[in-house]
Design brief:
This protein has helices at residues 9-23, 64-67; strands spanning 35-42, 55-61. It has 70 residues and is of the alpha+beta class. The protein starts with 8 loop residues before the first helix and ends with a helix.
């Protein structure tokens, strides 16, 4: 294996997840705002293999005041 010979998608995914969580913080119990929570991350199927791709599932929730239709 030669990890220096390929691009590892995991650091790029982590940057994207960090950007999303900063843009949509979890807030508190009384906050009614859009939230985005990363819930599942996938990458390599082995601890010593650079994955060809990496993905993240993000649970996005909209409060009724934002999701209500006009």
């Amino acid at each position: 294996a030669a990890p220096w010979a390929c691009d590892n998608p995991v650091p790029l995914l982590l940057q994207a997840v960090t950007s999303v969580t900063r843009a949509f913080p979890p807030g508190g119990p009384g906050d009614w705002q859009v939230t985005a929570s990363p819930t599942m991350l996938t990458g390599s199927d082995a601890f010593n293999r650079v994955p060809g791709e990496a993905s993240c599932v993000i649970d996005v929730r909209f409060p009724a005041t934002v999701a209500a239709s006009p």
